[in-house]
Amino acid sequence: MASSILSQGKEKIQEAMSAKDTKAAQLAANTKDVHDPSYRITSDWGTKQSNTDDWLKVATEDKTGPMLLEDGFSREKIQRFDHERIPERVVHARGVGAFGKFTLFESAADVTSAKVLTDTSRETPVFVRFSTVLGSRGSADTVRDVRGFAVKHYTEEGNWDIVGNNIPVFFIQDALKFPDVIHAGKPEPHNEIPQAQSAHNNFWDFQYLHPETTHMQFWTMSDRSIPRSLRMMQGFGVNTFTLINDKGERNFVKFHYTPELGVHSLVWDEALKIAGQDPDFHRKDLYTAIESGAYPKWKFGIQCIPEGKEDDFDFDILDATKVWPEELVPIRYIGELELNRNPDEYFTQTEQVAFATGHLVPGIGFSDDPLLQGRNFSYQDTQLSRLGINWEELPINKPVCPVMNHNRDGAMRHTITKGTVNYWPNRFQSVPPATKEEGGYVDFEEKVVGIKTRLRSKKFQEHKNQAELFYNSLSEPEKTHMMNAFAFELDHCDDPIVYERMTQRIAEIDFDLAKSVAEMVGGEPPKESNRPKHNKKAKGLSQLDFAPAKPTIATRMIAIMIADGYDAIAYNGIKAALMAAGALPFTIAPRRNKIFAAGEDKSTGKGVVADHHLEGMRSTMFDSVFIPGGAESVATLRKNGRAIHWVREAFGHLKAIGATGEGVQFVKDACDLPGMEFSTSGEVVDSYGVVTASEVSPQSFKEAIQMAKGAKDFV
Ligand code: HDD
């Protein structure tokens, strides 16, 4: 085992080096392999140790006496343990990361001089960290929350970080409100309840008191905040940046990542259950996909507004609570992000990685977006308390290009700089600034005249139009999900002023939605708002707009439920067909031990070892369930309450359910809904939004799974 892991590690590094992955090669120089057989335990000062289990003490075989303070190795071992934790991130504490590459299929030289966006021959190594926002480091993955989507590009010109989210807008417009919005969302100060939830009085109190949050609220109450997988969500830079080309022309820009697999979500009941059943659901999904070679990919796109056109819109393009509708500013897809390597160690890579919106390379600049400007201070600052002043020297954060300047010292400095001067200018001309021709970052020159004030400009005052645009653009099922989400969240608020005011706010966007929410959560019914509705829709807002061009079931997890006496032909047939389509079939049975097919001799037969037993895994972990026939097998499942619950629950979560032979009637009885249509042929039937195929051929089941993915988004 150990030697195979060891060789895998070496292979990975070799692969990376041969693929010219400069970051992997750099990290390899910092990596020690615990499976290298030449190692022996040493103290941190390097002396090999002969006993690391017993503290040095005064003792005989009959009597234990006092332990001795002189045992430096033991003190060091305990002390190192005592100090293992560093402060968790103040937001986005729970996260998972992966390495990959950024490639460009079209040069954007017309708008930027940045090599990373113009040189199509380059492969830029990246590290991406996904996260939830509110929960602490040990919280569950599937909570309702925004997901962080932070990308560190290790370019030849320095690190370029896009510190984005899976939702294109933000709650607030000015960075100064950030401590308030986060305090209000985090557990309440008096009792530290609730964990990783926005369903509480303070969060919704803040939301009501800040009308600017309305648009983002609608996004967070949509299915976007409960993704099925981190591989199936969009990423957005959110803030407005700028691109500057060789001619010195400037464009305002927003960054987009669109997943190859489409945008898919869980249903809320699944998300709640998975949070308990498998708090690591999203991290495992990402890890497994990468280990099995199903590398997640996103198209990278830019939306550009040339300087001079920034005032052409009825919203301010520097306001982070607004999207740039695609009808007005099309997205131009120019590159691809691929994740293809899991970290070797969580702490030194995923925990110690540190992003900063201020990390830019020549050709990319900031805008006057007041949220971005404040962020530029905050990220640099927060790393000081989390990692210390020399945080950029940590292996995961270190650029792949040379770093040299006259900054010195500070706790935990690693670099040793030789020479007699540490200032500029110096009599040796040592380490001068770079000219533009040498690749120096030159700030865009801009005339700024103004009045010093704490004002927000007029266009920043309108907060409802895009919330309505988003809501109008959703499909009916997405709207129903949103109604239920608002109703869930406000039900957890017990202060009437909080939920009554919120339903009134919702009425300003959509009166029917507000009435339905108010009916569920109680309080005074909302009054119709006099805000004139624009009734407009836009594309790219509903997640149904992101169905993959070629439907696929690759990496989907399919449970095949059997007991002794199952139909081996149906079982083997469907398993092979699923694997051929890149899906991951799992055998589920009453016990995790050999299960024998109909007619198979239990004493001599090979049997099939189930991957999980019915209690060990629940239907929520899978995208679909299949029940092959076999009279004895199905009779056993019929007597098992958990097996019946499995099928009913999968049905309730709108998943594809397939069955053959005796399995067909079992599924029908387990779901048992009046008026439910059920196919008894290979034809796929969509009933109650659940796709069933009985007497299934592998093809019809595959189709059913593909359809169910759609159905799930529809219902
Ligand atoms: Fe932030 C972390 C995304 C506004 C202050 N933020 C953080 C992370 C992401 C975002 C993905 C986690 C990075 C990681 O994985 O290490 N933040 C956003 C987006 C925002 C945003 C998309 C709006 C456009 N953030 C924002 C504001 C402030 C901060 C307005 C402060 C004024 N954010 C921080 C922080 C964090 C952080 C305190 C905590 C840990 C860290 O920076 O490294 O500085």
Automatic annotation (TrEMBL):
GO terms for molecular function: catalase activity; heme binding; metal ion binding. Its EC number is 1.11.1.6. Keywords: Heme, Hydrogen peroxide, Iron, Metal-binding, Oxidoreductase, Peroxidase. It comes from the Eukaryota. PROSITE patterns: CATALASE_1, CATALASE_3. One of its GO terms (biological process) is hydrogen peroxide catabolic process. One of its GO terms (cellular component) is cytosol. Gene3D superfamilies: 1.20.1370.20, 3.40.50.880, Catalase core domain. Its cofactor is heme. The active site is at residues 92, 165. It is an enzyme of class 1 (oxidoreductase). Heme binds at residue 379. Residues 42-432 form the Catalase core domain. It catalyses: 2 H2O2 = O2 + 2 H2O. Occurs in almost all aerobically respiring organisms and serves to protect cells from the toxic effects of hydrogen peroxide. Belongs to the catalase family. This is Catalase. It comes from Paraphaeosphaeria sporulosa.
